[in-house]
Each structure stands twice: as structure tokens, then as C-alpha cells.
Amino acid sequence: MIYLDNAATTFPKPEQVYLEMDKVNRTLAVNAGRGSYKAAREATQIIEETKEMLLQLFHAKGIADICFTPSVTHAINLVLSGIGFDSASVVYVTPYEHNAVARPIKMLQKKYGFTLEFIPLTEDLSIDLEKTAYLFTQKKPTLVISNKVSNVTGYILPAEELFQQAKKYGAITVMDAAQAAGLCPIDMRVANADIVCFAGHKTLYGPLGIGGFVLRHGVILWPLFAGGTGSNSLSLDMPENAPEKYEAASPNIISIAGLHAALEVLNQEEHFSYVGEMTDYLIQKLSDLSKIQLLGVCGAGTTVGNISFVVDGYSSDEVGKILDDEFDIAVRTGYHCAPFIHTHLNDKAYSGTVRVGIGMYTTKEDINCLIQALETL
Questions:
Q1: Residues 61 and 209 in one domain
Q2: pLDDT tens over the chain, length 377 residues
């Protein structure tokens, strides 16, 4: 199989991830933080080391905490539900947001009745920072949410600049880095982000079952979940401080160990350079095919990892089935859990897009095989 669905989850993982998870599953699959015996201490050490590695990755040591959750979707729900809204709140989202953001925000809007606004786009579907600045003067933001890399088009959003404008009004800023953590540089010292949510199983190359968020010191959330934390067990209140305040339940030590192994071998600079090179190569090759329409490519250097296109005369599902059945090529088709941006892409006649997700194990040979397959349509 030629795997080109890395936006959904990266595959394969580095060999070290598989080896470490197997070892920990056999020798340290105990309840970390709940015991004083040697295995529990070793498991706890793996968790603490993984958090330290993530703090280094996000340049957040001394200014933020790492809070683990079972997935980035859990992280986003915990974060958004923990923010204090009322009917006077004004929440801004970009049209590039995944349903992991869109659905919780819609649910919370129904509950609190706040105003929901969309960050405007330019004609080439890039973020319009000038119009956004004006919009903020008219309706001052309470919360601004932006992902860093679109899971549909691979567009690299100017989240840092967007958050800089939001901070003029004291807004809380939340970055969805599910498609970016470990790929694009994210520096908490200058990102103007209060919270960055990440997925372990995507561009960090860890396993499924672990995600979380980076929480800047001083930002307080109401905990969505309550339960055991292994500390102060006689109290019925959750701990006051992060990360324990947001980490009820037993930690997934096996997945955390896998993420630890992935971080040990991840070189973000090389990762970004290589995936960017493969992305540019794919765009060039697709542009040469007459029946292919590339969607949402905003210009040179603004796209990484994910590419969406449609094929004249075919629905996206038909293209995906042909690629799978006849060429053993795995791509994603449809609307990609991101409802807002598809309105701008105008792809309804094709039932969404064909999405190619490039990873660090994608080769030019893989891309050439995809192009040869598309040439048969």
C-alpha cells in the first residue's frame, strides 16, 4: 500500500515507537502516579520526561504546563468548556477549523448564546488580517481560535499574527496544532497563544491514544472532568494547579511512552524541510494534469503536508475508490470533518475533495505512482 493519508494519522511510525510501546506494555503498564513502588516511579518518570520534551519543542519551559488528554479532541473540548462564556462573549474562529473545534463551539453557543464570528478570507482563501483588525474594533473578541495548518488544504495560517491582534483586546487565544506540532515551528514565547492543543498521533509521529494542550501560566480553566489524580485523595475537589487539575483518570502510560520515543527521534527542522519539499513536488506534478483542479493553494511557501484536489468528471469518492482498488493507494476523500472551508472551496459538485496527506516517509516514487494512476482517469 502507498499510504497518503497522513493528515488523518501518520503511518508508519518510527520503529522506536513500536519497540518502546511493546516494552512498556510488557514491563511498566502500571498506574503511574498512584504508587511508590519502582515500576510506578519509572512510569511516572516517562510521563515527566515526555512533558519536558514537549515543553522544549514548544519553547514553553518556565511559562507553560503540558496537560495530557486521550486525544486532541478531548483537549479542545476540555479547553473550550473550561473558558467562562456568557451571552455577551464574542468568539472568532477561522473557516479552516476542524469539527474538533466547530462542534464544541456550536454546542457551547447553544448553551450560552454568545456571538460567533468568522475570520475573513481574501480571494485566494488566505486569512485577511487587515479586515480582521477592523472587525475586532467593531466586535471586540473574547476568544479567538485558529488552527496552524489546515487539515484540508495544508494552508499554514498566520495564527501568531492573528493572536497578536486579538491580544490588543485581552482575548483568550487558542491554537489547534493537530496538523502542525512537530512539523511547523511553534514558539510559545512569541506565538501570542494562551493554549496550544496537540495530537500525539499526527505530525508528532506518536501513537493514537495520547494528546493534550500547552497551557500558559496564569490562564485558568474550569475542569471539564473530575476524578482521581493520585494526589490529595481525601479531598472531593480537583487539585488547584495545572497540570493535575486537568488530568483526572489513569494516564495512558503505553501511548505516552510511544510519544516519548517519537520525540526522541523527531527532528522538526528536517521534518518541515522534507515534507515541504514533497508538498511542492506534488503541487508541481498535479498542476501538469489537465483534469485536475487544485483547491486552496494560497501561494508558494504557504502550504505544507496536505493537498486537496478534484478531478473533472468524477466525484471525490470515485477517485478514492479507483486509487484504492486498482493501484493500492490510500487517500482521503469527502469533507474531512471541516465543514466551513468546503463552502469556500466550492467543491459540493464533487462531494468534497481528494486529499493527499504527505508524511516524512512519503517518497517521490510514491507521488509519481499517484500521478501515473491519476493520468489513467
A1: yes
A2: 999 999 999 999 999 999 999 999 999 999 998 878 999 999 999 999 999 999 999 999 999 999 999 999 999 999 999 999 999 999 999 999 999 999 999 999 999 999 999 999 999 999 999 999 999 999 999 999 999 999 999 999 999 999 999 999 999 999 999 999 999 999 999 999 999 999 999 999 999 999 999 999 999 999 988 888 888 888 888 889 999 989 999 999 999 999 999 999 999 999 999 999 999 999 999 999 999 999 998 766 799 999 999 999 999 999 999 999 999 999 999 999 999 999 999 999 999 999 999 999 999 999 999 999 999 99
Residues in the chain: 377
Grouping H, G, I as helix, E, B as strand and the rest as coil, residue 345 is helix
Burial of 81 (0-12, 13-18, 19+ CB in 10 A): middle
Task: Give the end of a domain, one of 265, 290, 311.
Answer: 265
DSSP 235: -
Name, in order, each residue with C-beta under 8 angstroms of 368's C-beta and a sequence gap of 6 or more: 285
Q: Is 350 helix (H, G, I), strand (E, B) or coil?
A: helix
Our count of domains for the chain comes to: 2
Q: Please give the Cα distance from 373 to 34 (Å, whole number).
A: 54
What pairing do the DSSP bridges indicate for beta strands 353-357 and 306-311? Answer: antiparallel
Q: What is the DSSP letter of 290?
A: T
> Does 182 lie in the same domain as 84?
yes
Q: Which neighbouring-strand residues pair with 311?
A: 292
Give dist(CA 260, CA 245) in Å, integer.
22
